[in-house]
Structure formats: C-alpha cells, structure tokens
Design brief:
Layout lengths: L1 H10 L6 E4 L5 E6 L6 H15 L7 E6 L6 E8 L5 H5 L6 E4 L13 E7 L2 E7 L7 E6 L6 H15 L4 E5 L4 E3 L6 E6 L2 E6 L3 H4 L4 H78 L4 H8 L6 E10 L2 E8 L3 H11 L4 E6 L3 E2 L5 E9 L12
Parallel strand pairs: 1-5, 6-9
Antiparallel strand pairs: 2-4, 3-4, 6-7, 7-8, 10-11, 11-12, 13-14, 14-17, 15-17, 16-17
Length: 381
C-alpha cells in the first residue's frame, strides 16, 4: 500500500490528453502578419488569409496557426470539416489540445535548412525550417498501404527532393507523443531523443477546433481549476481545523489531568483548612450566638386576649413554636398577621386548625425571627 502511494506521487500528474490528426487532410501556408500585433490581432489576420486561400468559407474549416511574438510571418493550416467523422469530433471536448501531427514538432530547436521526416502508415510528412525561428514549409507524401519497404523508401526520397534546400534530414522513428512536464508553461512532445517544447501561450492558436467552442472549453477549464482549488483549500482548512481541535483537546486533557492531580495533592490541606474554618465558625456561634427563648417569647406575647398558649418550644436559634387555642377562630389569622408585622419577625405560619368540643379551636404557629434581630436584654414590661 505504502509502496503504491509512493509510486503514485513520484509519477506525478498524467501526460496531457492530446488528439493528433492525420497530416494528409490539411493544407498549409506561410502568411505575412504584423510583427507588432497582439495574439488576437494575429488570429484575425490569419482568418482573413485563410478565407483568401481556401475555396470554402472559414466557418466550414478547422484551422490553426503557429506564431511567436515579434515574427512577421505565421504558419497556418486548415482542413475541410467534413473530412472528419462525428465519431472523431465527439472525442475532442475531452482533449486538452487537438492539432495535426506535424504541428507537434514546431517547438523543436533545429538549425536552419533542417528537414524533419515524420512517418505514418498513410505516408510521410516533411517539416522544413529555412531559419531557426519557425517552420517554413510542410509537405505530405501519400503512400499506399500495400507499398513495399522499397516503395516507401522511394516515396521518402521524392519528398526530400520536393522540399529542397535541406542540409540536414532527421527521420523520427515514431510519431511524437506528449509526456509529463515539470513546467506548467509548456507541453513536451518526444520521439526517441527528439524533443519539441510548445509554450502554453501559443497552444490556443495551434488548436484546430471551433474557436467559439474552444473559448467555452477554456472558460470551463478555468472554472474547473478554480473549483478544484477551492475544494482543495476547503479540504485543507477542514484538515487544519481538525488538527487544531485535536491539539486543543490534547492541551485541555493535559491541563485537566494536571489540574486534577494538583487538586488531589491539595485535597488534604484543603480539608484541614475547611475543618479548621468549621471549627472556628462553631466556636464563634457558641461564643457570640445563643438561644434566647425568653426574648422570643416576650416578642411573641403580643397576641389577642382570646388566644391562650398551651405549650411553647424552640426549633432552633431563630424559631419559636407555639401551640395555642382560642374560642374565636378568626383571631388565629389576626394573630398571624400581627406577628408578621413585627420588625423582628421574618415569617409566621400557622398549622391546620382543629376544632374541639365547646367551640374551642387548637392550632400551632411557627415563628421565624430575623437573624440578629433578637437582643439579649429583655425590654421592661
């Protein structure tokens, strides 16, 4: 698994998908252009030149051209659209580049008066350079499929003589094929030791597809590239966030572990301090706070005359519980209201009344005094 992944990354991206067309169906010319023109202006001049050269309207042709900035000539090539079947053109949208086979060698570095011979089953193509700047002539010599090796050799010799002016003739043993390039600014074609480097900037001119469709494909490719980059950036961001979250969780876990260990180490000391605090609080309560039942009774004594106490107990430092009876049940609510109105009383609640014989009602009322509201000195009657 690891070995296959390493092989995949070492191999790099795949070679570009390029459709190579037969040289036999194209006519070629060298046409003059304005050397200071832009690429778009040269493309317009090329179309005008093709219209003048071809018996068919430009809309019925697949055409391309080769031109480099600063040159006063462009090499043009075109073919009648009906020479290509629907099966052939159906594959073109999937290709990065569609061009005749002879155009693949235009990026070669050759000396002046050099001719390259491309061999194919249907014949031979000669690409000649008068100067090193750009090709000057392309000729195709058809050969019958049943031709013998001697007949093919004779056809090659006739093609070289027809080109003329060749000081050097180079035979390519096989058709150039695209290969992976480490530079995104060029496409490389190789045939044995022979290399042709075509800059990406001129590929749109070499492509023979319909120029409107080509522009749409180019826009779609740019859009796909940006979508891919956005997806990769999003994936990288998600990965970064996941790594960050894992790091935060790791730090939090370490911090929590450290905190728990510190708390465990400090627990005996904290418990000792807490016990000492509780002891001090208890001592303070015993020395400064005490039950004052008589003072509470004195405050609660302010009752209606019809209410008689039968039993009085305390429920804590601040609570007094009074059991009482009365012959007038309405006095229970009046007593409770009077107790709540006292400044020392926080609350007063009465229990459920119980009616006994002879009209006597017994009840229990619980009085809660406010903290520190009861003074140890009993006021005078």
């Amino acid at each position: 698994m690891c070995a296959s992944l390493l092989s995949f990354f070492r191999a790099g991206p795949p070679a570009p998908r390029i459709a190579l067309l037969s040289d036999a169906v194209f006519f070629t010319r060298l046409v003059p252009v304005v050397s200071t023109a832009s690429e778009a202006e040269v493309a317009a001049q090329v179309e005008l030149a093709i219209e003048a050269l071809s018996p068919f309207p430009i809309a019925q042709l697949y055409h391309g051209h080769y031109w480099k900035p600063g040159l006063d000539r462009a090499f043009v090539f075109a073919s009648y659209r009906r020479r290509f079947t629907a099966e052939q053109t159906a594959q073109w949208p999937l290709a990065q580049l569609v061009l005749p086979t002879f155009a693949t060698v235009f990026g070669a570095e050759v000396a002046p008066a050099t001719t390259l011979i491309l061999a194919a089953p249907e014949g031979f193509t000669a690409v000649h350079w008068d100067s090193a700047a750009m090709p000057s002539r392309v000729l195709f010599q058809p050969v019958s499929a049943e031709a013998t090796p001697e007949e093919r050799a004779l056809a090659r010799e006739e093609l070289v003589r027809a080109v003329g002016g060749s000081k050097k003739v180079v035979d390519l043993v096989e058709a150039p094929t695209p290969e992976v390039s480490s530079d995104d600014d060029e496409v490389i074609f190789r045939s044995g030791a022979f290399l042709s480097r075509l800059p990406v900037a001129i590929l749109s001119g070499l492509d023979v597809r319909d120029k409107g469709q080509l522009a749409e494909l180019r826009r779609a490719k740019i859009r796909d590239v940006w979508l891919w980059r956005t997806a990769m950036a999003s994936a990288a961001l998600v990965a970064f966030l996941l790594v960050g979250e894992a790091a935060v969780r790791g730090v939090n876990a370490f911090w929590q572990k450290t905190r728990v260990e510190k708390l465990k180490a400090q627990a005996p000391l904290v418990e000792k301090i807490d016990n000492a605090q509780k002891l001090a609080t208890r001592i303070e309560e015993l020395t400064t706070k005490r039950l004052l039942p008589m003072e509470m009774i004195e405050i609660a004594r302010k009752k209606p005359e019809g209410v008689q106490w039968t039993r009085v107990t305390t429920g804590g430092l601040q609570t007094l519980i009074i059991e009482a009876k009365t012959n007038a049940s309405g006095e229970i609510a009046a007593y409770r209201t009077a107790l709540r109105a006292l400044p020392e009383v926080e609350n007063a609640e009465s229990s459920k009344d119980q009616l006994l014989s002879n009209g006597t009602t017994t009840f229990t009322i619980t009085i809660t005094f406010k903290p520190n509201a009861i003074k140890s000195e009993i006021p005078a009657a």
